[in-house]
Specification:
Elements lengths: L9 H17 L6 H7 L4 H29 L3 H14 L9 H28 L6 H28 L4 H7 L1 H14 L5 H8 L12 H14 L2 H10 L7 H26 L1 H21 L6 H26 L5 H30 L1 H18 L11
Helix pairs in contact: 1-6, 1-8, 3-5, 3-15, 4-5, 4-8, 5-15, 6-12, 6-14, 10-15, 10-16, 12-13, 12-14, 13-14, 13-16, 14-15, 15-16
Length: 389
């Protein structure tokens, strides 16, 4: 028998805990946004704009924060600033009275994500050997989705106990404050030489090798997957009670939380492309099913199956980015990845919301499926990463 597998570094679990607590707060709000939008007179196109414009606003911030964290050789200040900004701004949803105000709050909330995401992903990749990157990102994404599940259940419980929706939004401040505390106390920066040693591979050439076919897959996959709020709107359209929406959100994140870690490990063993392809294929099938369904009963299993896409792709994509670049340029590599994804996540919801308003839910979900099929067609042109050549 082989030697027992070593435990992942503390930094991985500390960042996972931060993600858990942050999403515990944010997902007390997100599944209720379609209901809030209907109360303040927003359209589906505006809902898509809410989901999309915030991603567009922060796309450049993700690129800049990754690059600056490389230049400064420090990741933690950017991570702390990003989480703190989101924590303080997010509860302001309790005060919004118009779609424009909701978009503004959401954009500033996501600006915090723009500050923290690339440096956090780079720090996570710096902390582990090359052959465990998929596993490390799987742990972080799994804890992130577990927090999302907990936040949705907490919101549903508070509503069931008679809390007003806007009170739930205000209470989201509490877990966010704890997440910043954990980050400050238990996450440390890694020196450049420590990061190279943890990677256990020679430092790669300074030139970034982010292949265009891979970025194309990221864009099309993001456009096809920018449907989460529309799925909640579809459930409401089919007759789901408002109190059931957070429970649906919890079902989605149970699947993501439970599968992110094992599927991240699978990408370490089988290769990133194969695992990403499985996620794209599963997403295509689920989008077609959402286009066809007419009874609310089927929404529950489809929400669970929708979680497969993120579980397959999130850890594998981030592992692929880390495989391509050395520790000295990893921040900007994740900045490029997240910025490209952010631009797509702006266009995707806006496109799907416009299609929904003009042609109905069925057509919108078929457009999402079509974008994912195009990503699948592009995947064979993506070169294998260094670990899997």
């Amino acid at each position: 028998m082989g030697a027992p597998r070593a435990r992942l570094p503390r930094t991985v679990f500390a960042l996972g805990t931060v993600s858990f607590l942050t999403d515990l707060g944010s997902e007390m709000i997100l599944p209720l946004l379609p209901l809030l939008f209907s109360q303040i007179g927003g359209s589906m196109q505006q809902l898509g704009l809410l989901q999309g414009i915030s991603e567009f606003v922060v796309a450049g911030m993700k690129l800049a924060s990754g690059w600056l964290s490389d230049r400064m050789r420090r990741r933690k200040p950017w991570i702390v600033a990003g989480y703190a900004l989101s924590t303080l701004v997010r509860p302001l949803f309790a005060l919004v009275a118009s779609p424009l105000q909701a978009m503004l709050v959401r954009s500033v909330d996501r600006a915090g994500k723009g500050l923290r995401t690339a440096p956090r992903d780079a720090l996570l990749a710096d902390s582990v050997p090359a052959d465990r990157r998929g596993e490390a990102f799987g742990v972080q994404r799994g804890m992130d989705h577990a927090g999302a599940c907990g936040g949705a259940l907490l919101a549903s419980g508070l509503l069931a106990l008679g809390c007003e929706m806007r009170t739930v939004f205000a209470l989201a401040l509490v877990p966010g404050l704890f997440s910043v505390l954990v980050l400050v106390l238990f996450v440390r920066d890694m020196a450049r030489e420590d990061a190279c040693a943890a990677a256990a591979t020679p430092e790669q050439p300074p030139a970034m090798r982010m292949p265009l076919p891979f970025l194309g897959v990221v864009v099309l996959s993001a456009v096809g997957s920018a449907v989460d709020l529309f799925l909640l709107a579809r459930a409401k359209e089919l007759g789901m009670a408002p109190a059931s929406l957070p429970l649906l959100w919890a079902v989605l994140h149970v699947a993501r939380a439970g599968l992110s870690h094992p599927l991240g490990m699978l990408s370490d063993r089988l290769g990133r492309r194969r695992v990403i392809g499985c996620g794209l294929l599963a997403h295509t099938v689920v989008m077609v099913a959402f286009a066809m369904v007419e009874q609310a009963l089927w929404i529950w299993p489809l929400f669970a199956l929708h979680g497969l896409h993120a579980a397959f792709t999130e850890g594998a994509e981030r592992g692929y980015v880390a495989d391509l670049t050395g520790a000295g340029r990893r921040g900007r590599s994740f900045g490029v990845y997240n910025a490209v994804q952010g631009v797509a996540l702006f266009g995707g919801p806006l496109l799907l919301g416009t299609v929904w308003d003009q042609g109905g839910a069925q057509r919108a979900f078929l457009v999402a499926a079509g974008a994912t099929v195009l990503a699948l067609g592009l995947l064979p042109f993506v070169a294998r990463s260094g670990r899997h050549r």
